[in-house]
């Protein structure tokens, strides 16, 4: 956890005003740049000191064995791990005869700024070497949203106290030495030297490395070129070897002179293209980038982001930290998804090796909803990736003795990588989560081509999975037994309510899509008879309920189980999974994360307001939030049940997950889903936004700490701006002619002519729910007194 | 499976009349000799051909890592594996210039006989070498019951067609090369070269090797000496090196002459004694054995067994194969337990490396009951071993957040070795099984010293475990949630009926023992108050029952689950665990082995006759018997519910488990518990023997295929012989003055004056229960037409 204020609170950027080696790894994650294809961690230009060097290409992984003390049928034997590919960030500097290394000499000033509007990461360092020579280094870095293969650096050195001899080495480095991995299973397995060289070259300012992974057989090419200006008696040379290509600039700088190096780095990889093809591909991308130039790339980046913010910005009055965090979150969610293009969207984006670079259910459940209403093309791409893995998912279903498709719990290439089936294979809800994301995207975009090509097969095959996974009992009720819901402190339960409700929706929507496209469905062998069996199962879906307690059960029998001994659990015993066996967690009433509460968030139509209030209060007492995926769902349901202060506190937790490193593992990459949860809490929670039956609906309600909340969402090609104050909600249509919505249950037609203002009714509330001892969310105080620059 | 008749059917021995290389591994297991301390597999004297060479010392293991694809709190990181120690069986033979290897030349005759009355394994081979020289080799082998450290071989060679030059090499070999392990998780991990040499020596006929295991640090010493007679111009020499000590005899034999070598092998090991101490220990044992001589050892062995059979024999008329199998079973059960002396009694005894040489619950549940009534001192020793591991079990309970002691699911040294917690740690019933064995032994022997020293702490600490593992719900009912019962095709269930009933008994008996010995209990901190909480829990123990189906549930919700698709499961898809994921098995109604049925067998007092009949019929339809532990419990309940033909067939399955290799893994060692199950089926099933409230009771009933069943049991130092025919049961007291028993529910006093004969009432029966398609036990035909020698 980052316990001191690490970053300044500003609305449009993240600023670090001093270099703190204690949180270097964390800052490398939060300052990471990505376009969804390339990920550059916020490592210092000169490479060291570092927490964890990281350069990632989406889809580039190596296999690793998954060992078992006792093997079993259907256990995956090989997993996939994201690998640190060739590092193109490196620019080393020699000042006179001493390397620019901030651990030595004296650092007078060090500032880094991640600008959410320009997409650039800026750095300024003023440093005196151990021998007394002072220089200022300024660098800016971008990973281009517009030129997908390109990242670039602008690097400037100037002397601060007279002439100095400068050597700059701009490098490409493969197989960097990585710090040892921890025992924390959430961290990545370190693979030593995953890249085997195929080619290296250096021609003047152009350097290139081409490698291949040993087992996965992926070819990775990186080329760089440079534009140099400034300095006197400048000499340049380049050289290359197996794991290093280097461009060296030697020069003298007088007072007032600057050496400026613009570095363009092109990345490419392929599983099937030949070495010359990959080689040419990166060179071509590089040529285009060099032609665009640094300023051209920076301008394109700004334009891209201006467009993004016009579609997606969230404005918050009354809590500057939340305002910043909301934009930080949206920026990183965009970075993770923008240019993934039919590759997975990993849990950590491309900001670190955490969770082995795997994609889980949280992409579809938390990240894609945000992108659906802000950058829907990214959702289409992410779901096209899922669709591309359908053959593997069908094969996995066969292996498990099931019909349809069983998508993997964690994966990079579409094959299951989960080595612990009770919390992997058994968590079948991911299939409904994928189906749900496809339905949401289709309803929000009316993208019929997508529905026919991608949505229909995804829905049909997941519906088949549910139909074969569940069964009707002899009373006709439909049960799904022995599965694991979102809560990872329960497993292998019967009739998990979240799973059953999501499966119900999946079955219903699959039946509907077959009805809409009977000819296409027929190509998959689906017909009215099959769809009828899905409707039957959905209609008779079991939802366990405890009438004595008057609450729904997370799963059958859950509320009869022993309560976890929260009073006897010390603060230092969280997260519980590191201090108690799964055995004990599974059989008691304790929830790692929102499960039934998330079901109420995503399937609010299945519960009455009274049930929501009772259920929320009951499960609040059991939920310890050892998962970063919990707070946002709790924020939404706290808001819906009228507990605005609590919702506000949960918003704070979701928003500060990485900026304050609340889970203690931001070093391994940021939590994309929790960041998406910031938007969830604000837009779905306080905006009260839902989508039912093809209409978006709002039930706005603000906590008293926030004076105003405004956000823009896209729906069917139209942009709607929503502005909420304590008493009024104003809806403005920014694009399009007219849009029918709901406000607090009433239909409302918004046109481009004029905004519509509506009263926000007062919020009914009951007694505040309680959390387990010591597990209430941090109480948000007034916003910290930093500048709002 | 052994599909051809491999062994002759004879009442007092197991005879193999030809060498069949296809079933060599299996025969090595069934011909294994052991005294519970030393185990010698039935490898050929000359070492090759072999299936699996094996020499074991009880308690000698090596650590091996237990890897996990995803680690978790409380997972054991290190397991234990039984190792193949120094082989003292080896006697190689050179006939003229060719090695005696049965794979070459011509084998005219090969016979092996395991004699249950003498405890000797005899072998005769008549062989012509490739170059045409013929010899007869006769050997006999024993592992002494009376001299615990000693095994011995008598080895004779004689020429069959004129003079021959003979070289005999009698060896001790460490770190034998072993065949590669299979992927079957039930087989042992092969550890290459587990023994590091500390000392080797050869002095005339005496040879010695001393090794140490690397990680477990166990010192293993083996010494051998030889007595040689016969032959002309005999020369003898010996030599030793790191892994080989060899005594070589060179001689010439004329027609009619024989070379005879008597080999005495002393084994010893220690975790704490120094090399010289272990060295001396084996030499001392060797000296005693040499002094006793071969014939002396053989005589002691016969005497020991004569005594054993007088206390334990089971006679069966009408099925010669069962008669043989019953004695084979008792012989091997004795071998496994006789001289274990405060070491574990492994699932395979010391007959092979299967299950890594681990001890499981089946020792207490199946093996110890047999020994309780036939060789009770072995039970005392086995439970003293459990008691010796109480500190580790207490520590494990602490680690799991529980009170009392949590005994390991599988272990050699007392530490948990299970690498799959849903079928390991979660199978807490082992604790009640241990308590049950202690109670049974105490009631059968009145061994008060044992109760005070061993029984009381075992009962108190296991009762504490149950009290902390379970909880009272708000109606006061006591539940034990999230545990795994005997059936390994279910896991992590609430209120497993077997577990709850065994825990109930455990809690009641613990309360009773605290009441009997309050002062001793106080030393453990146990008092009336604590005992009252145990009684409360026992009184309010939940037993799930489905009133609609009118059957008990194996665990809460079990009977509501989907039925396994037996009709759609092919014969080649058994055992199911090798063809279907645990995920699928766990959530459906399918039982690997008797679970509720075993509960009815061990806690018959908890069910009415009608319930037994209904439950038995219900679970018969679900039980596939992929476990060797299933048939005997089903035999018992089939007999009790009047299905005598079915009981007889199940008896056949239990009895022939290893003789016909029904599970296909007899190569890795015989199934001691299934062998014990033969006795279960005969004595508990057909004898109807139960023990309630300190009385043994009989409800005899024979299947029509058996004309007579007679058996002897020990109870409180008295021997009772029971002889049952179709219509009469006769009780004879062989030792002691008088014994009160029950016959068919009526009290009966048997005195030494005269046998008591009673009528056996006719057996009420209902419709025959059905088994899953293809999973009915093999129908026993008339006994095969082999000689009854």
From TrEMBL, chains A, B:
Matching InterPro entries: 6-hairpin_glycosidase_sf (IPR008928), 6hp_glycosidase-like_sf (IPR012341), Gal_mutarotase_sf_dom (IPR011013), GH65_N (IPR037018), Glyco_hydro_65_C (IPR005194), Glyco_hydro_65_M (IPR005195), Glyco_hydro_65_N (IPR005196), Malt_Pase/Glycosyl_Hdrlase (IPR017045)
Question: Looking at the record's lineage, which domain of life comes first?
Answer: Bacteria
Molecular function (Gene Ontology), one example: hydrolase activity
Question: Region entry Disordered: which residue ranges?
Answer: 751-789
Locate the Glycoside hydrolase family 65 C-terminal domain: which residues? 689-750
**Which spans does this entry mark as compositional bias, Pro residues?**
761-770
Give a yes or no for keyword Oxidoreductase in this entry. no
> Would the keyword Hydrolase be found if you checked this record's keyword annotation?
yes
The residue ranges of the Glycoside hydrolase family 65 central catalytic domain are: 327-679
**What keywords were assigned to this record?**
Glycosidase, Hydrolase
- Can you give the residue ranges of the Glycoside hydrolase family 65 N-terminal domain? 16-270
Query: Hey, which family's this protein in?
Result: Belongs to the glycosyl hydrolase 65 family.
Q: Could you identify this protein by its name?
A: Glycoside hydrolase family 65 protein
């Amino acid at each position: 956890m980052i316990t001191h204020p690490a970053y300044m609170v500003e609305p449009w950027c993240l600023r670090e005003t001093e270099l703190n080696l204690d949180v270097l790894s964390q800052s490398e994650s939060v300052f990471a740049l990505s376009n969804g294809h390339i990920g550059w961690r916020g490592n210092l230009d000169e490479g060291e000191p570092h927490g964890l060097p990281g350069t990632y290409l989406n889809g580039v992984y190596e296999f690793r064995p998954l060992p078992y003390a006792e093997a079993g049928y259907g256990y995956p034997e090989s997993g996939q791990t994201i690998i640190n590919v060739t590092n193109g960030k490196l620019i080393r500097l020699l000042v006179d005869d001493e390397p620019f290394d901030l651990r030595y000499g004296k650092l007078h000033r060090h500032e880094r700024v991640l600008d959410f509007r320009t997409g650039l990461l800026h750095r300024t360092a003023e440093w005196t070497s151990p021998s007394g020579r002072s220089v200022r280094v300024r660098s800016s870095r971008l990973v281009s949203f517009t030129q997908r293969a390109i990242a670039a650096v602008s690097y400037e050195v100037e002397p601060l106290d007279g002439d100095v001899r400068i050597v700059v080495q701009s490098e490409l480095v493969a197989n960097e030495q990585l710090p040892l991995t921890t025992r924390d299973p959430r961290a990545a397995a370190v693979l030593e030297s995953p890249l085997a060289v195929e080619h290296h070259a250096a021609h003047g300012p152009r350097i290139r490395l081409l490698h291949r992974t040993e087992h996965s057989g992926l070819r990775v090419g990186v080329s760089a070129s440079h534009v140099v200006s400034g300095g006197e008696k400048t000499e340049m040379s380049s050289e290359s070897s197996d794991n290093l290509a280097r461009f060296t600039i030697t020069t003298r700088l007088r007072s007032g002179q600057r050496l400026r190096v613009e570095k363009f780095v092109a990345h490419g990889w392929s599983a099937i293209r030949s070495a010359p093809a990959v080689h040419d591909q990166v060179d071509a991308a590089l040529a285009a980038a060099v032609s665009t130039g640094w300023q051209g790339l920076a301008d394109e980046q700004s334009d891209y982001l201006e467009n993004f913010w016009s579609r997606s910005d969230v404005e918050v009055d009354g809590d500057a930290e939340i305002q910043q965090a909301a934009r930080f979150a949206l920026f990183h969610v965009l970075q993770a998804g923008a240019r993934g293009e039919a590759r997975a969207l990993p849990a950590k984006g491309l900001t670190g090796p955490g969770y082995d670079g795997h994609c889980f259910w949280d992409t579809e459940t938390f990240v894609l909803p945000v992108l659906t209403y802000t950058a829907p093309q990214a959702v289409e791409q992410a779901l096209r990736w899922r669709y591309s893995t359908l053959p593997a998912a069908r094969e996995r279903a066969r292996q498990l003795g099931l019909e349809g498709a069983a998508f993997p719990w964690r994966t990079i290439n579409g094959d299951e990588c989960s080595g612990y089936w009770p919390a992997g294979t058994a968590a079948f809800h991911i299939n409904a989560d994928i189906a749900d994301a496809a339905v949401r995207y289709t309803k929000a975009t009316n993208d019929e081509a997508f529905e026919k090509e991608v949505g229909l097969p995804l829905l049909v095959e997941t519906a088949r999975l549910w139909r074969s996974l569940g069964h009707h009992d002899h009373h006709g009720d439909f049960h799904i037994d022995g599965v694991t819901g979102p809560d990872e402190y329960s497993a292998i339960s019967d009739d998990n309510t979240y799973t059953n409700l999501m499966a119900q929706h999946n079955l219903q929507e699959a039946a509907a899509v077959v009805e809409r496209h009977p000819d296409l469905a027929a190509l998959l062998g689906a017909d009215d008879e099959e769809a009828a069996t899905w409707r039957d199962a959905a209609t008779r879906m079991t939802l366990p309920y405890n009438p004595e307690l008057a609450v729904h059960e997370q799963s059958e029998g859950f509320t009869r189980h022993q309560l976890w001994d929260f009073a006897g659990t010390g603060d230092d015993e969280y997260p519980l999974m590191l201090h108690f066996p799964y055995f004990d967690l599974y059989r008691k009433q304790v929830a790692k994360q929102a499960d039934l509460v998330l079901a109420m968030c995503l399937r609010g139509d299945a519960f009455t307001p009274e049930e929501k209030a009772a259920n929320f209060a009951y499960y609040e007492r059991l939920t310890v939030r050892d998962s970063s995926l919990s707070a946002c769902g709790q924020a939404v349901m706290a808001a819906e049940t009228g507990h605005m202060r609590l919702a506000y506190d949960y918003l704070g937790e979701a928003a500060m997950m990485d900026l304050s490193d609340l889970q203690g593992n931001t070093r391994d990459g940021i939590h994309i889903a929790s960041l998406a949860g910031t938007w969830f809490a604000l837009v779905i929670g306080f905006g009260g936004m839902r989508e039912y039956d093809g209409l978006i609906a709002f039930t706005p309600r603000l906590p008293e700490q926030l004076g105003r909340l405004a956000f823009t969402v896209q729906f069917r090609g139209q942009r709607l701006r929503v502005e909420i104050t304590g008493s009024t909600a104003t809806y403005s249509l920014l694009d399009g002619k007219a849009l029918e919505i709901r406000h607090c249950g009433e239909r409302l037609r918004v046109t481009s002519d004029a905004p519509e203002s509506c009263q926000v009714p007062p919020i009914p509330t009951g007694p505040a729910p309680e959390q387990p001892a010591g597990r209430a969310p941090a109480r948000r105080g007034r916003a910290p007194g930093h500048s709002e620059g």
